[in-house]
Amino acid sequence: ASLGQLSTDQLSLVDLRAHHLDGPRPSKEAFLHAAVYRARPQDSAVVHTHSTHAAAVSCLADVDPDDVLPPLTAYYVMRVGRLPLLPYHAPGDRSLEELAERTARASHAMLLANHGPVVSAADLASAADAVEELEETARIHLLLHGRRTRPLTPEQVAALRRT
Fold first, then answer.
1. 29 tagged catalytic
2. Residue of 36, 56, 39, 48 lying closest to 6 (CA atoms)
3. Of these residues, 75, 97, 132, 136, which one is catalytic?
4. pLDDT above 90 (res 11)
């Protein structure tokens, strides 16, 4: 669904095991959202997109799977932070569920290989802001790919995480 055109009557209600409770039939990836909610009960929103630049980065071979994107901007560090890359699973492959839940315990954002980002936050606006920041940083990363960059230093990153 287009997030800009989404209305509440288009939303599916599922439980924490992704069992359909109400509304339209859920996406075959509802289990992914449920896994993140189980791992992060403090969060009330999970956004998963197939955004162009993040999906492109998820296809790159030369990324660090523990933290895919370098800390290129302060806002990326503050809104996203660490971005682990999960191995490829076909859309709807439930074998991703346990890995996604385990990953979400340590990181509110993850990138699914050859697929796209998943981000959770305390509310929908914050999750949408974070996934938008992730997409823009992926775009910057691709624009700079193959060129020498000057990411933020570990000290600068640590200072931003304290704010």
1. yes
2. 48
3. 75
4. no
Q: Is the predicted pLDDT of residue 3 greater than 70, yes or no?
A: no
CA distances from 70 to 13, 25, 57 (A): 36, 38, 12
Can you give the pTM of this predicted structure? 0.92
Evaluate whether 119 touches 134 at the Cβ level (below 8 Å).
Answer: yes
Among 126, 102, 106, 127, smallest CA distance to 49 is for: 127
CA dist 32 → 11, 14, 111 (Å): 15, 11, 12
Distance from C-alpha of 110 to C-alpha of 93, rounded to nearest angstrom = 16
Let me know: does 53 contact 142? Beta carbons within 8 Å: yes
Q: Binning pLDDT at 50, 70 and 90, where does residue 4 land?
A: confident
